Amino acid sequence: MKLWSGRFGKDTDALVNKLNASIGFDQRLYREDITGSMAHAEMLAAQGILSQEDNAAIQKGLREILSEAEAGELAFTADNEDIHMNVEALLTARIGDPGKRLHTARSRNDQVALDFRMYVRREIGGVIGRILELETVLCRQAARHQHTVMPGYTHLQRAQPVSFAHYLLAYGQMFSRDVTRLEDCRRRLDECPLGSGALAGTTYPIDRWKTARDLGFSRPMGNSMDGVSDRDYALELLSDLSILMAHLSRLAEEVILWCSWEFRFIELDDAYATGSSIMPQKKNPDVAELVRGKTGRVYGDLMGLLTVMKGLPLAYNKDMQEDKEPVFDALDTVNLCLPVFAAMLDTMHVHPEKMRQAAGRGFLNATDCADYLTRKGMPFRDAYTVTGKLVAACASQGKTLEDLSLDELQQASDLFDADVYDSLNLENCMALRKSYGGPAAEETARQIRELKAFVAEREEKPE
Ligand code: ARG
């Protein structure tokens, strides 16, 4: 019999039960549900709404249910619809009347709002930890490759020389923003919805500040209707995870390009690559491709929940039961992708000579040639034109700028001198780009230092 069967004259249709039941997925919330109920009962007892004896029985019963659930010994049933009614029914079956008093001054609406919020809060910590591990791998690879010259691209055309460290550290910046975005999300969700009731609070003299504090929140949510119907934190989490996946997907795309025969900048470790069923020579970057592909499903999770929430009138609506699966799916996806991706990057074999070779072709030092003339007094726009003509001449002869003799250079401008070859040297081109945030080794060393500090700060005191 259903907990809410009081006003019904018939059993629910079987298909309706199937549609309505969420226990299949919301059993993931059992820990939060039980913890929330314990805090609620404690507060009811402290306020004299529940007797100390009833509270003691409830606490003991819930503790047992929790440890059995942790041990995987509990069977939840679809007859009880969702995790909230499953736990309550289990409790009542064990302790009788006190179990029936637990739901005093509470609704499943504030209960689920609390459970889901606490679940998201906990999961954010896990995701942050995994991003920090990825950042540690980036630091490790970057530290090895501060002097590894490679082409930097715009429009996927070779542009200016950078180091492999600089390239990886650009992703480090993105992942740090992903971390602080998740921290922002956690800061904003730090209000407790418990005590909002069904939507309009309660007539009982509850203490919302106590439950908020006991459950690790800074304060109760300020409006009971918002309390039961806000899912912003889930949308924020999904947005944050979507942006994180966008970053992983961009790096995945680089990895796929870099290990193609066209680039050959890296080779993946055998443990992080796969073969073909027909072509014996193939070694495919499936990990990177799958991460790129799974980005689509995380975006789908975000779009799904945004669409569920769109146009819902206040306060609780059953539509909102659809909030959980996209969040679970996005978390599962991200939690799988992050460690695999980190391990793939940690074990990849880098080919600095291939990167250097690629950087040697494509006139990556053309800007430096123009800068040279500018330093000698020519206005930059004129220096740009002179260099452009030299590039065109070289391109048609299959030469590089540094292949040109001083005579040939001086025919283009008498400002050229023997020291121009130093300016055209790629290692120098990179080393001289010491502007803040640039690819010079001093600057990548600073970036590595700061990224390490960012990680260490958080690993020392994870929230
Ligand atoms: N299983 C529901 C959910 O996930 C719990 C809240 C149900 N409340 C209600 N009034 N039917 O949203």
Write up what this structure looks like.
63% of the residues lie in helices and 5% in strands. The protein is mostly helical and 463 residues long. A two-stranded antiparallel sheet has the order 1-2. A two-stranded parallel ribbon has the order 3-4. A two-stranded antiparallel sheet has the order 5-6. Strand 1 and strand 2 form a beta hairpin. Helix 3 runs antiparallel to helix 4 and helix 7 runs parallel beside helix 13 (324-347). It is elongated and about 100 Å long. The two termini are 42 Å apart.
Tags for this model:
two-stranded antiparallel sheet, mainly alpha, 463 residues, 5% strand, 6 strands, elongated, binds arginine, two-stranded parallel sheet
Produce the secondary structure layout.
Layout: H1 14-20, H2 23-26, H3 30-46, H4 52-70, H5 83-95, H6 97-101, H7 108-144, E1 149-154, E2 157-163, H8 164-188, E3 191-192, H9 208-214, E4 219-220, H10 224-229, H11 232-258, E5 266-267, H12 286-309, H13 324-347, E6 349-350, H14 352-360, H15 366-375, H16 380-397, H17 406-412, H18 420-424, H19 426-431, H20 441-460
Parallel strand pairs: 3-4
Antiparallel strand pairs: 1-2, 5-6
Helix pairs in contact: 3-4, 3-7, 3-9, 4-5, 7-8, 7-13, 7-20, 8-11, 8-20, 11-12, 11-13, 12-13, 15-16
Bound molecules: arginine.
Arginine binds at residues 22, 26, 82, 84, 108-109, 112, 316, 318, 320-321.
